[in-house]
Amino acid sequence: MNPRIVSALFLLSSMAALSSCGGGTTQPTPVPTPAPTPNFPVIVAAGDISCDSATPQLPCKSKETSDLILTERALHPALVVLPLGDLQYESGTLAEFRKNYHATWGRVNEYAHPVTGNHEYETRGATGYFEYFASVGVAVGARNEGWYSYPIGDWRFIALNSNCGPLGGCTSGSAQYRWLQAELLQNKQKCTVAYMHHPFLSSGQNGSTPELLPIMRLLYENNVDIVLAGHDHLYERFNPITPDQVADPAKGLRLFTVGTGGRDLYEFSKILPNSAKRYNESYGVLRITMKDLAYDWSFVNIAGIVVDSGSGVCF
C-alpha cells in the first residue's frame, strides 16, 4: 500500500481513539430556536365610568381604572378598549365629557370602541356623547343609531345600543334588529363579541333587561360567544346560557356585567340562576385575551388583584 495512505489511515485512527477517550473535541448539540409567542389582542372593558363636577363626594375611580388600561397597553400593543356606556355622569354633556372623561379614559381613545348608556341620553339624542367622540376621531355609529361592527383578526365585534326607548324599541321589527340580523348572516369571523350598556341578565339592583330578548335570541342563534354589558355597578359572570335562561355549556352565551369603571358600586339584589361569579368590593376592568378559536378572561381590580378568571372556546 502507498506509504502516504498508510500514514493517513494511522492518523485518522489515532484521532478517533483520542476522541473516544475524552481527549477530542465534541460538537455542541444545537439548541432549537423557540417559537415566537403569539401577540394576541387583548380586550379591556368596563362601563359606568366618570363622575361629573357636581358630585365630588363620590369615589370617582375612573383615573384608577384607566391606569389599569395603560398598564395593559404597555404589555400588549394590540389593545381593544370597550367602554360599556354611562361613560360620563350625570347627563353626558359635551362639557363634562371634555372635562372629566377626557382626562381619564380619554387617554385611551386611540384604542376605544364605545357604546352609549342611558345617562348619555339624559342629554337629548345623546348629543354630548356623539359630539365628543366625533371630535376625537372615534367611530361610534350614526347619531340616530349608535350601533356598528368591526373585525379584529379572527374576531368580530358588534357594538349595540341597548337604549330601547329612545330607539323606538328593540323588537324583531326594529331597525337595529334588522341591521344585526344582516350583520350576523354575513359574519365570517371565527369568534364574536357583542357588547352594550344594559345587561340582559343581572343580579344587581337595576336588574335584567327583558326588552333585549329578541336581540339575545338572534345572538344565540348565530353562535355569538361573549356578551358584555354594564349598567349595574358591579361585576357578574354567568355560565353559558340560552336566552331562555337554560344552562348550555355547548354553545350558550357567556354574559358579563362590568359596571365597575369608576362611578360608584351597587349591592346585589336577587341572585339569578347560572350566576357564576359576583364581585362588588372594588372597581376594576375585565380583560379578555383573544386567541385562535378560544379566549382567556380575568377581572382585575384597581389593586391589581385578579378576582375572577377562566377560559372559553368559540363556537
| Termini separation | 76 Å
Q: What's the name of the CATH homologous superfamily?
A: Metallo-dependent phosphatases
Structural class label: alpha/beta
Q: What name does CATH use for the topology?
A: Purple Acid Phosphatase, chain A, domain 2
Domains (count):
1
The overall average pLDDT, rounded, is: 90
In the predicted model, the low-confidence regions spanning at least 5 consecutive residues are: 1-25, 33-37
Number of helices in the DSSP assignment: 7
Overall geometry comes to globular
Into which percentage range does the β-strand content fall?
Answer: 15-25%
Written overview of the protein:
There is one protein chain. By secondary structure, the protein is of the alpha/beta class. The protein has a single domain, classed as 4-Layer Sandwich (Purple Acid Phosphatase, chain A, domain 2), CATH 3.60.21. Helices cover 23% and strands 21% of the residues. It contains seven helices and twelve strands. The strands form two sheets. It has a seven-stranded mixed beta sheet with strand order 3-4-5-6-8-7-9, with no helix packed on it. Strands 2-1-10-11-12 form a five-stranded mixed beta sheet, covered by helices on one side. Helix 6 (175-185) packs parallel to helix 7. The longest helix is centred in the N-terminal third of the chain and has 18 residues, at 3-20. The protein is globular, with a radius of gyration of 27 Å. The relative contact order is 0.14.
